[in-house]
Protein backbone atom coordinates (compact mmCIF):
# COMPACT_ATOMS: atom_id res chain seq x y z
CA UNK A 1 0.00 0.00 0.00
CA UNK A 2 1.40 3.48 -0.82
CA UNK A 3 2.79 5.53 2.05
CA UNK A 4 0.86 8.33 3.66
CA UNK A 5 3.02 10.85 1.80
CA UNK A 6 2.11 9.35 -1.57
CA UNK A 7 -1.55 9.28 -0.65
CA UNK A 8 -1.45 12.94 0.37
CA UNK A 9 0.30 13.76 -2.90
CA UNK A 10 -2.42 11.90 -4.81
CA UNK A 11 -5.10 13.70 -2.79
CA UNK A 12 -3.59 17.07 -3.71
CA UNK A 13 -3.52 16.02 -7.37
CA UNK A 14 -7.17 15.02 -7.12
CA UNK A 15 -8.12 18.38 -5.61
CA UNK A 16 -6.29 20.18 -8.41
CA UNK A 17 -8.02 17.93 -10.93
CA UNK A 18 -11.49 18.66 -9.54
CA UNK A 19 -10.87 22.41 -9.46
CA UNK A 20 -9.39 22.54 -12.96
CA UNK A 21 -12.15 20.33 -14.40
CA UNK A 22 -14.79 22.61 -12.90
CA UNK A 23 -13.03 25.70 -14.23
CA UNK A 24 -12.68 24.14 -17.69
CA UNK A 25 -16.38 23.29 -17.75
CA UNK A 26 -17.39 26.88 -17.00
CA UNK A 27 -14.84 28.74 -19.13
CA UNK A 28 -16.23 30.24 -22.39
CA UNK A 29 -13.02 29.85 -24.42
CA UNK A 30 -13.05 26.23 -25.55
CA UNK A 31 -12.34 27.59 -29.01
CA UNK A 32 -11.26 31.08 -30.04
CA UNK A 33 -11.34 32.82 -33.39
CA UNK A 34 -8.16 32.41 -35.43
CA UNK A 35 -6.21 35.40 -36.72
CA UNK A 36 -6.08 34.00 -40.24
CA UNK A 37 -6.64 36.78 -42.77
CA UNK A 38 -7.52 39.38 -40.14
CA UNK A 39 -6.20 42.90 -39.92
CA UNK A 40 -5.81 45.55 -37.27
CA UNK A 41 -9.04 47.32 -38.30
CA UNK A 42 -11.13 44.28 -37.33
CA UNK A 43 -9.87 43.70 -33.80
CA UNK A 44 -12.68 41.38 -32.74
CA UNK A 45 -12.09 38.18 -30.80
CA UNK A 46 -14.80 35.54 -30.63
CA UNK A 47 -14.89 32.69 -28.14
CA UNK A 48 -17.18 29.71 -27.83
CA UNK A 49 -17.61 27.52 -24.79
CA UNK A 50 -19.86 24.73 -23.65
CA UNK A 51 -22.52 27.03 -22.25
CA UNK A 52 -22.03 30.45 -23.85
CA UNK A 53 -20.48 32.37 -26.74
CA UNK A 54 -18.54 35.55 -26.05
CA UNK A 55 -17.24 38.40 -28.20
CA UNK A 56 -14.46 40.84 -27.36
CA UNK A 57 -14.64 44.09 -29.33
CA UNK A 58 -11.82 46.52 -30.01
CA UNK A 59 -13.62 49.13 -27.94
CA UNK A 60 -13.14 47.00 -24.83
CA UNK A 61 -16.73 45.79 -24.69
CA UNK A 62 -17.12 42.13 -23.72
CA UNK A 63 -20.51 40.49 -24.33
CA UNK A 64 -21.69 36.91 -23.90
CA UNK A 65 -24.83 35.02 -24.86
CA UNK A 66 -25.97 31.73 -23.36
CA UNK A 67 -26.73 28.69 -25.49
CA UNK A 68 -30.31 27.99 -24.52
CA UNK A 69 -31.20 25.53 -27.27
CA UNK A 70 -29.83 22.05 -26.63
CA UNK A 71 -31.14 20.44 -29.81
CA UNK A 72 -29.46 23.07 -31.97
CA UNK A 73 -26.01 22.16 -30.65
CA UNK A 74 -23.75 19.74 -32.54
CA UNK A 75 -23.24 16.24 -31.16
CA UNK A 76 -19.68 16.81 -29.96
CA UNK A 77 -20.75 19.86 -27.96
CA UNK A 78 -23.66 18.04 -26.32
CA UNK A 79 -21.34 15.17 -25.46
CA UNK A 80 -18.75 17.54 -24.03
CA UNK A 81 -21.36 19.13 -21.80
CA UNK A 82 -22.60 15.83 -20.42
CA UNK A 83 -19.24 14.18 -19.90
CA UNK A 84 -17.64 17.21 -18.25
CA UNK A 85 -20.49 17.51 -15.76
CA UNK A 86 -20.29 13.77 -15.02
CA UNK A 87 -16.53 14.07 -14.64
CA UNK A 88 -16.89 16.81 -12.03
CA UNK A 89 -19.50 14.82 -10.12
CA UNK A 90 -17.46 11.62 -10.20
CA UNK A 91 -14.30 13.43 -9.12
CA UNK A 92 -16.12 15.08 -6.22
CA UNK A 93 -17.39 11.69 -5.08
CA UNK A 94 -13.84 10.37 -5.32
CA UNK A 95 -12.61 13.21 -3.10
CA UNK A 96 -15.11 12.26 -0.39
CA UNK A 97 -14.01 8.62 -0.52
CA UNK A 98 -10.34 9.56 -0.63
CA UNK A 99 -10.70 11.62 2.55
CA UNK A 100 -11.96 8.48 4.30
CA UNK A 101 -9.29 6.25 2.78
CA UNK A 102 -6.24 8.30 3.75
CA UNK A 103 -3.92 6.43 6.11
CA UNK A 104 -3.11 9.60 8.04
CA UNK A 105 -6.71 10.11 9.19
CA UNK A 106 -8.45 8.50 12.16
CA UNK A 107 -11.84 8.06 10.51
CA UNK A 108 -12.83 5.54 7.89
CA UNK A 109 -12.68 2.28 9.84
CA UNK A 110 -9.91 -0.30 10.03
CA UNK A 111 -6.78 -0.56 7.95
CA UNK A 112 -8.41 -2.91 5.45
CA UNK A 113 -11.54 -0.76 5.23
CA UNK A 114 -9.41 2.26 4.44
CA UNK A 115 -7.66 0.28 1.71
CA UNK A 116 -10.94 -0.68 0.05
CA UNK A 117 -12.20 2.90 0.34
CA UNK A 118 -9.00 4.22 -1.24
CA UNK A 119 -9.39 1.80 -4.15
CA UNK A 120 -12.96 2.99 -4.69
CA UNK A 121 -11.74 6.59 -4.67
CA UNK A 122 -9.06 5.71 -7.22
CA UNK A 123 -11.65 4.12 -9.49
CA UNK A 124 -13.76 7.29 -9.29
CA UNK A 125 -10.75 9.42 -10.22
CA UNK A 126 -9.84 7.21 -13.17
CA UNK A 127 -13.41 7.32 -14.50
CA UNK A 128 -13.52 11.09 -13.98
CA UNK A 129 -10.21 11.48 -15.82
CA UNK A 130 -11.46 9.46 -18.79
CA UNK A 131 -14.74 11.42 -18.84
CA UNK A 132 -12.69 14.63 -18.95
CA UNK A 133 -10.21 13.39 -21.54
CA UNK A 134 -12.80 12.19 -24.07
CA UNK A 135 -14.63 15.52 -24.62
CA UNK A 136 -11.38 17.49 -24.68
CA UNK A 137 -9.95 15.19 -27.37
CA UNK A 138 -13.16 15.11 -29.42
CA UNK A 139 -13.60 18.88 -29.19
CA UNK A 140 -9.99 19.48 -30.26
CA UNK A 141 -10.36 17.12 -33.19
CA UNK A 142 -13.51 18.90 -34.39
CA UNK A 143 -11.87 22.32 -34.14
CA UNK A 144 -8.72 21.23 -35.99
CA UNK A 145 -10.73 19.41 -38.67
CA UNK A 146 -12.82 22.51 -39.32
CA UNK A 147 -9.73 24.71 -39.34
CA UNK A 148 -8.02 22.54 -41.97
CA UNK A 149 -11.11 22.46 -44.19
CA UNK A 150 -10.50 24.73 -47.16
CA UNK A 151 -14.23 25.17 -47.74
CA UNK A 152 -14.67 26.98 -44.44
CA UNK A 153 -14.21 30.77 -44.69
CA UNK A 154 -11.23 32.23 -42.86
CA UNK A 155 -13.54 34.35 -40.77
CA UNK A 156 -15.20 31.18 -39.42
CA UNK A 157 -12.01 29.36 -38.45
CA UNK A 158 -11.32 28.70 -34.79
CA UNK A 159 -8.42 27.38 -32.72
CA UNK A 160 -8.48 25.37 -29.48
CA UNK A 161 -8.80 27.71 -26.53
CA UNK A 162 -7.32 27.70 -23.05
CA UNK A 163 -10.25 25.76 -21.60
CA UNK A 164 -9.34 22.71 -23.70
CA UNK A 165 -5.79 22.71 -22.34
CA UNK A 166 -7.12 23.08 -18.81
CA UNK A 167 -9.34 20.05 -19.43
CA UNK A 168 -6.34 18.01 -20.61
CA UNK A 169 -4.35 19.01 -17.52
CA UNK A 170 -7.23 18.15 -15.19
CA UNK A 171 -7.60 14.76 -16.86
CA UNK A 172 -3.91 14.10 -16.22
CA UNK A 173 -4.23 15.08 -12.57
CA UNK A 174 -7.26 12.85 -12.05
CA UNK A 175 -5.74 9.85 -13.82
CA UNK A 176 -2.49 10.14 -11.84
CA UNK A 177 -4.37 10.42 -8.55
CA UNK A 178 -6.58 7.49 -9.51
CA UNK A 179 -3.63 5.21 -10.28
CA UNK A 180 -1.98 5.98 -6.94
CA UNK A 181 -5.16 5.36 -4.98
CA UNK A 182 -5.90 2.18 -6.92
CA UNK A 183 -2.56 0.82 -5.71
CA UNK A 184 -3.84 1.11 -2.14
CA UNK A 185 -4.50 -2.61 -1.83
CA UNK A 186 -5.25 -3.58 1.79
CA UNK A 187 -2.56 -5.72 3.37
CA UNK A 188 -3.08 -9.09 4.99
CA UNK A 189 -1.98 -7.86 8.38
CA UNK A 190 -3.51 -5.00 10.28
CA UNK A 191 -1.66 -1.73 10.44
CA UNK A 192 -1.42 0.80 13.24
CA UNK A 193 -5.16 1.25 13.31
CA UNK A 194 -5.66 -2.44 14.21
CA UNK A 195 -4.33 -1.85 17.73
CA UNK A 196 -6.67 1.06 18.33
CA UNK A 197 -10.09 1.02 19.83
CA UNK A 198 -11.68 1.65 16.43
CA UNK A 199 -10.74 -1.80 15.12
CA UNK A 200 -13.86 -3.98 14.87
CA UNK A 201 -12.06 -7.12 16.19
CA UNK A 202 -10.69 -5.40 19.31
CA UNK A 203 -13.61 -6.28 21.66
CA UNK A 204 -13.54 -9.89 20.48
CA UNK A 205 -9.80 -10.15 21.10
CA UNK A 206 -10.16 -8.70 24.59
CA UNK A 207 -12.95 -11.14 25.40
CA UNK A 208 -10.89 -14.14 24.23
CA UNK A 209 -7.89 -12.96 26.26
CA UNK A 210 -10.05 -12.58 29.37
CA UNK A 211 -11.49 -16.09 28.94
CA UNK A 212 -8.00 -17.51 28.55
CA UNK A 213 -6.87 -15.84 31.77
CA UNK A 214 -9.95 -17.17 33.58
CA UNK A 215 -9.20 -20.74 32.47
CA UNK A 216 -5.53 -20.52 33.43
CA UNK A 217 -6.15 -19.10 36.90
CA UNK A 218 -7.27 -22.42 38.60
CA UNK A 219 -4.26 -24.22 37.10
CA UNK A 220 -1.88 -21.63 38.53
CA UNK A 221 -3.48 -21.93 41.99
CA UNK A 222 -3.13 -25.73 41.90
CA UNK A 223 0.53 -25.51 40.97
CA UNK A 224 1.22 -23.15 43.86
CA UNK A 225 -0.59 -25.49 46.28
CA UNK A 226 1.48 -28.53 45.19
CA UNK A 227 4.75 -26.64 45.49
CA UNK A 228 3.94 -25.74 49.07
TrEMBL record:
The keyword rRNA-binding does not apply. Pfam families: PMP22_Claudin. Keywords: Cell junction, Cell membrane, Membrane, Signal, Tight junction, Transmembrane, Transmembrane helix. Residues 192-221 are annotated as: Disordered. The chain crosses the membrane at residues 84-105, 117-139, 162-183. It is found in: Cell junction, Tight junction; Cell membrane. PROSITE patterns: CLAUDIN. Residues 1-21 form the signal peptide. Gene3D superfamilies: 1.20.140.150. One of its GO terms (cellular component) is bicellular tight junction. InterPro entries: Claudin, Claudin_CS, PMP22/EMP/MP20/Claudin. It comes from the Eukaryota. GO terms for molecular function: structural molecule activity. Its main location: other. Claudins function as major constituents of the tight junction complexes that regulate the permeability of epithelia. Belongs to the claudin family. This is Claudin.
Amino acid sequence: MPSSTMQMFAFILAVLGVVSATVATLLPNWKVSADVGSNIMTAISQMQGLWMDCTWYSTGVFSCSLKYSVLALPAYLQTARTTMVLSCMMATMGLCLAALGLKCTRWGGSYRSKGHTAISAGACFVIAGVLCLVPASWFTNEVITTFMDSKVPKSSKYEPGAAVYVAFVSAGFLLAAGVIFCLSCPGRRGGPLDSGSSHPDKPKQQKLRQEQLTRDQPKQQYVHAVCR
